[in-house]
Write a structure and sequence with these properties.
Length: 521
Amino acid sequence: MADLKLYDTTLRDGSQGEGISFSVTDKLRIARELAMLGIHYIEGGWPGSNPKDMEFFLKVSRQPLEGSCLVAFSMTRRPGLKADRDPNLSALLKSRVKHVAIVGKTWNLHISDVLKVSLEDNLEMIKDTVGFFAAKGITVFFDAEHFFDAYRSDKDYSMRCLDTACQAGAEAVVLCDTNGGTITSEVSRVTSQIRPAIKVRLGIHCHNDCGLAVANSLAAVEAGADMVQGTINGIGERCGNADLIPIIANLKLKLGIDCISGEKLKELTRVSHFVSEISNLRQKNDQPYVGISAFAHKGGMHINAVMKNPKSYEHINPSSVGNHRRVLVSELGGRTGILLRARELELNLDKKDPQTKKILKLLQGLEHKGYHFEAAEASFELLIKKALKKYKKFFELEGFRVVVEKKSDKKITSEAIIKLKVKGTKEHTAAEGDGPVNALDNALRKALKEFYPTLSKMRLSDFKVRVLDEKTGTASRVRVLIQSQDEKETWSTIGVSENIIEASWQALVDSIEYKLLKDKA
């Protein structure tokens, strides 16, 4: 099915997800990325619903998306109002698009209880709206809302809705599982039954309320659908939409459908992470194909097998989707995990090397104390390089003091004072912060910035604290994980101590030293 089309609705349906709000700039940036990925149709929003969406469409019209078609969304005309008098439809014309998606009712329950019109009036609304745009030479996609519920309730009427849209000039009809409640076998059966009757492109639009949106979308394709709608990372209302990321990978790599090129497929991981960042959402570690855990190996038996033949525990080559293999170094991985990680770092080690045994013993001892290096690969890289004497110190701590003060105005302030020796020079600085760790971070950067300017490019993106033995109460040992990032990479570091400030300091120093090490400062 070389002619299958990908249709993204991240900027419209995805923006309806809880906690997501795209600015016009956000939408423009995402749209450009989607076009670069090779998405055929990009639904930019509903220009009749808000000024922001209209601004987006007008800005894109001045610099059209290369290789992708921009689509504007709206619903069928209002009851009792002709299409050429409906302000929502007029807004679509003002958006200057050449493709529109019109959602219409197909389920008799919605028509009678929500729209409150007769079944015949609903058909007239579909006909009038689709025909209005088709007569102007605009490509119309008809989204058959709640179609699977409609087909289950009244097969004949739901098919009349599709036929009416086709007769009025729709160039595609899209079967929508709007409530996300349809089982995969039913999606497959219904799509197969109606495919022969549809002479235009047939699309599928699934929601994830049963956790089946990806499976349902793929089942519909195998049953004859030749357009797949979804959002990047599956963001959307309630439980989200079908996730286009695994859909694209499965279409290309599992079903052999050439929906995008192999080179563009390699951008899948990057685009997924980009949209997460713009959406202000944490990337799911276990997201298929593109999550950082998607090709992570921890057990010694698995690691040993992957070293001999990656196909033994990997269903695809990670690089085909722009991801990479990760070996999670822990006491479970044994020497094999250490050797493979050392190889990735271009360090020469073998099983019989005494240094390998030394590092394994050190690792097991630290993990017994509460360290957790599978979640802190940057700290492990520093550990192994220090053990092999492949590491140089960037600075030496002479001491620090952290003061937390609660003032009479009830505000709490934190100040860190730090003494360092950097390249033979003594630095004595102080800085405030939102909390003690932030104050330490600010003071440390202040002391180092003149010597290592690249530190201005990094920031702390996540901070986690876990109590390791709650039975000892406030005297318990804590594990601190810090995630940092710069413009190219994200990394994690760890610290463990009975003192939360000391554990945070360990993780903070590792984070900065890793940045300096990779920058060859």
